[in-house]
């Protein structure tokens, strides 16, 4: 299941950036499951990783290699992504395996081992099938290409339980120059990113200093991947990488207009990729926006939004298209808000007001509520009536398919 | 669905305490849905109520009436419980209705209006069907009786989506006297009590001062109803009442032996009632104990236990009897623990060690894991290796039936 039309954009070439895939048979024979991304010399690359304390071996190695490259004054040259196996919960063996796969690609490419950053996604706790993975590298390397088709195949090559390839692209005009931002992402279950998403790779041809690039990544993450949840489960393997080849227009702190154009474009790509994960959430039949306003601060708005977004009772009511607004009210009421005066809370489904003055809105009718609930895309507006801060969070519903997918995942 | 054998104890009479039920047709015709409990004069009564900010009208009125009785130096004489309608999210009308039902029973019984405490459970946001509810009161009042059958019928009369009546009873020897503690509870979904459970009523014939009774209630609650979760959703109507008729043995602060015997007995009743809610959790096919040890403090242990207990991925793996221990590891890793060194964590399913040194335990085999997962009752042991504190939490799995029950709840 997935919500809305499937769509993959026609990605423009980003000069010097190439992608290659192969079918290594890591978990499933004949599945495109290995991706290599080549980054040109002189590019900048920044990343954000899961905050899960049991983070996977590739997360530890990628962070370490990023730091080593930085200390040498260079940037990584290759990203290597496998699906079908997360290399998480694998202890020392997992770290050794992640480094050995980097070494294998480094040898093929003629670069240092720490110029390769590894990423894995799939089942937790199984050892990486080293022979098959390393055996698949030459074909992926030989396939490196910068075309729209290469982007599309790479987006397919990182999927697990996803039913759709996810991509977003914008073309910006900065002064006389055209700047491109392309991105791909994957993720469907175990989605409650914390400082990153399952996996996302975003690239631009703009020229941006590393510290500014890093600031832009975290700023846009906080309003995209960090505002989505399928099932409240933060993954061990989340990573979001942002690469700037530096061959295009300069984006710098001192040019506020260029920076603003770039920031808005990047936010759009990041938000589209994050929303694509929710639209393709495991078993999803609804795409739900939680819009919380009137909060004392942004954290309070996020707390309320995530409390409602994680409520199994709200999620099953959404699945059933049942306007059981009492469950939304109950979830808002248990959110961690100090001195909460619920008589000031207003809750609406799209344009239908549900709750005011601590109870059902006078204007509410069951027919009006049911009409909204029948839609595939619904916004739940919650005004706390306490302040000026707001936040938006996106989530999916809880369906029989979610249970089936996750009860059968390892079979 | 429910886990384990259905069992309802043969409750001894508590002198002076009587229970009566009737079929008022509040939501479903011919269902036993109205319960009156009569408490003798001279008894003490204390309660704990939901912390949900959108708490229901009866919760507000019951708290108010408790306080009014206390200010008059007396205690409430009647509890009135209806199922089928929560009288929550009903604003001013709901408060008026709750008070009017108290007045109706007070008139029948010849007591003050504030000597009646109201409790409601069922669907949120519908007005209380006043005519049917008040119409059912005379029959319930006329049925007042102290027998085991009256206790059993009262336990049936407070159920909603529950599939079983829930009761627990202990008989204690304090000095030369026999003390009885009887309790009933209800709850199956929207279960993540916060300072109380859905509904529980516990009575004893012991003689205990109000302040001590209140302390005992909260102490035993914290290790029973506050340690269970079905779906993380705290109800608007949670309440747990403890009554002591004072006709039996004296339990007082200064007699530490009697106090210890009584505290242990009360804890046993409270824990059995809380566990009965989990065994009968919506769609439950497993009864799961989370035993977290080696924490720096109890709150940290509870945080880890609830993070695992709420993980939809852990719960669907339990439903599938799939030893997908990577999901337990991932849930532990995302728990809110500062400076978490996961290499010290040890995780076991019953007696099968799953995780050590940051990865799969050397001794683990899939066969051993699968054998434990096939059981109906499973303990997940998580040793954080950081300190001496521990906590125990009970939960159920996430099944297709949970989704069906909650998708169809209002139909």
TrEMBL record, chains A, B:
Its main location: cytoplasm. SUPFAM superfamilies: DmpA/ArgJ-like (SSF56266). Substrate binds at residues 160, 186, 197, 282, 406. It comes from the Bacteria. This is Arginine biosynthesis bifunctional protein ArgJ. It catalyses: L-glutamate + acetyl-CoA = N-acetyl-L-glutamate + CoA + H(+); N(2)-acetyl-L-ornithine + L-glutamate = N-acetyl-L-glutamate + L-ornithine. The active site is at 197 (nucleophile). InterPro entries: Arg_biosynth_ArgJ (IPR002813), ArgJ-like_dom_sf (IPR016117), ArgJ_beta_C (IPR042195). Catalyzes two activities which are involved in the cyclic version of arginine biosynthesis: the synthesis of N-acetylglutamate from glutamate and acetyl-CoA as the acetyl donor, and of ornithine by transacetylation between N(2)-acetylornithine and glutamate.
